[in-house]
Design goal:
Alpha-Beta Plaits, RCK_N, 14 strands, NAD(P)-bd_dom_sf, Trk family potassium (K+) transporter, NAD+ binding protein, six-stranded parallel sheet, Rossmann fold
Length: 229
């Protein structure tokens, strides 16, 4: 089955239009998602009035304001409040108390992240730390474009085919499952994504293979790609 690289549309509310919040807003809008932008600073809201699907001035520390915005109807609510950790924590508590399904909160440091997790955030992100980690991984393993730790030493990784010895071969010929213990989830080729590719699917130079398996097995495949350059 082939699908175009287009995400299913969902609804997002972004609270806080600082550097992270505004960048996330623009990325989601560019991906054709529906986004409500929220900030208590009128000037920031004005800046993104024409960018977001909707933009409103509201103080997320006020429960009545959150109720009026009907945030429980959104698929995801992202708390991007910057250095005011108290406001970030209080907003997260209020959102969960109101019954918001998926609250993603930005943390400034480890302690802030621990508190956000304790008060019920469904996901806590530390953008600077995570970006640095991804950059380090890319520098060390340039073939691995993304690496998501799923826990229990299992990972979900995107690996680029960047050498001739791994190209122009079928999934069966590469035998990634047998040689490396990895399951091929998809192959991205020239903008198309093939989900659960058949064993006779041919891999070409520049294709991106998405695999799932043990950390050590992903590393072994990456090392094999380097050796065959």
């Amino acid at each position: 089955m082939k699908v175009k690289e287009k995400a299913m549309q969902q609804t997002y509310a972004i609270i806080g239009l600082g550097r992270f919040g505004s960048s996330l807003l623009e990325a989601l809008i560019n991906a054709n998602q529906e986004v409500l932008a929220i900030d208590k600073d009128p000037e920031r809201v004005e800046d993104y009035m024409e960018v977001a699907t909707h933009a409103v001035i509201a103080d997320a520390q006020e429960e009545e304001a959150l109720v009026e915005l009907d945030l429980t109807s959104f698929d995801h609510v992202v708390v991007c409040i910057g250095h005011n950790q108290q406001a970030s924590i209080l907003t997260t508590i209020l959102l969960k108390d109101l019954g918001v399904h998926n609250v993603i909160a930005k943390a400034e440091n480890k302690l802030h992240a621990r508190v956000l997790d304790k008060v019920g955030a469904d996901q806590v992100v530390r953008p600077e730390t995570e970006m640095a980690q991804r950059l380090a991984e890319q520098l060390i393993s340039p073939n691995v474009l993304s690496f998501v730790d799923l826990g229990d030493a299992t990972a979900f990784a995107e690996i680029k085919v960047a050498n001739l010895k791994f190209s122009n071969q079928t999934i069966a010929e590469l035998d990634i499952q047998g040689k490396y213990g990895l399951t091929v989830v998809s192959i991205k080729s020239q903008g198309d994504i093939t989900i659960s590719p058949e064993v006779d699917t041919t891999v070409q130079i520049g294709d991106i293979i998405t695999v799932i398996g043990k950390h050590s097995d992903v590393q072994r495949l990456d090392e094999a790609l380097d050796k065959t350059k």
